[in-house]
Amino acid sequence: MSDSQLWDDVDAYFTTHLAPGDEALDAALRESDAAGLPQVNVTAAQGKFLQLLAQVQGARTILEIGTLGGYSTIWLARALPADGRLVTLEYSARHAEVAARNIARAGLDTLVDVRVGPALESLPKLADDNPPPFDLVFIDADKGNNPHYLEWALRLTSTGSLIVVDNVVRGGRVADADDTADDVRGTRAAIELIGSHPRLSGTAVQTVGGKGYDGFALARVLA
């Protein structure tokens, strides 16, 4: 058995027992596939992990950068109280349309605000709204802009907030000094910013599973 097949089998086992799907989640994946969206959403186990992080955090407000078809949005929004709020930013109007339908089907449209456009244009507008600090930020968009998204996350959070950056391992490419692709350079810059910033304490965890070899960074805002 290959490593990738073993990873898939273990992921399937964990999903069956710890993160089983339901009609809303399954439909979100089906609709995203039918619309031709790239299959880069989080796995079910990762979605459940994000939900648990939000619940442990006691999150009332969540910011997601990168909506895709709304699969991770549904996991996160389900952690919110009835008066909570999740703002999710999506570059593609087509992707956002699919996500909005998926979110509404899950009965979460009153909690979720889908904003369309480049995130680096949406974030200043969001800041102009002067929202309360976000308790959790999930960054899962174009990797080259990760350091910029991280800087905005710092502006929009406060002491004790959590910031999660997805896909930081890049199949191991993040440690290859000869790899100067935009996604790798952006990821390295974000990791190094977490490590050096006086307001952040963070770590990174490598993962294997249905999405191959990757990982995430987790940072807590200190002040």
Explained architecture:
There is one protein chain. This protein has 223 residues and is α/β, with parallel strands linked by helices. It has one domain (3-221): Vaccinia Virus protein VP39 (Rossmann fold, 3-Layer(aba) Sandwich). The protein is 43% helix and 23% strand. The protein has a seven-stranded mixed beta sheet, with helices on both faces. Helix 2 runs antiparallel to helix 5, helix 3 packs parallel to helix 4 (71-77) and helix 7 (146-155) packs parallel to helix 8. 43% of the residues are buried.
Mean pLDDT: 97
At the fold tier of CATH, the topology name is Rossmann fold
N to C succession of SSEs: HHHEHEHEHEHEHEE
Helix and strand composition category: alpha/beta
N/C terminus separation? 48 Å
Strand adjacency order, main sheet = 3-2-1-4-5-7-6
Portion of residues in beta strands equals: 15-25%
By oligomeric state, this entry counts as single chain
Known CATH architecture: 3-Layer(aba) Sandwich
How many separate domains make up the residues? 1
Largest sheet geometry: 7 strands, mixed
**Secondary structure tally: strands:** 7
Tell the overall outline: globular
Fourth-tier CATH superfamily name: Vaccinia Virus protein VP39
- List low-pLDDT spans: none
Q: Quick gist of this model?
A:
The chain is of the alpha/beta class.
Supply the key terms.
223 residues; alpha/beta; 7-stranded mixed beta sheet; 43% helix; 23% strand; globular
How would the blueprint of this fold be written?
Blueprint: H1 3-18, H2 23-34, H3 44-57, E1 61-65, H4 71-77, E2 85-90, H5 93-105, E3 112-116, H6 119-128, E4 134-139, H7 146-155, E5 157-166, H8 182-196, E6 200-209, E7 212-221
Parallel strand pairs: 1-2, 1-4, 2-3, 4-5
Antiparallel strand pairs: 5-7, 6-7
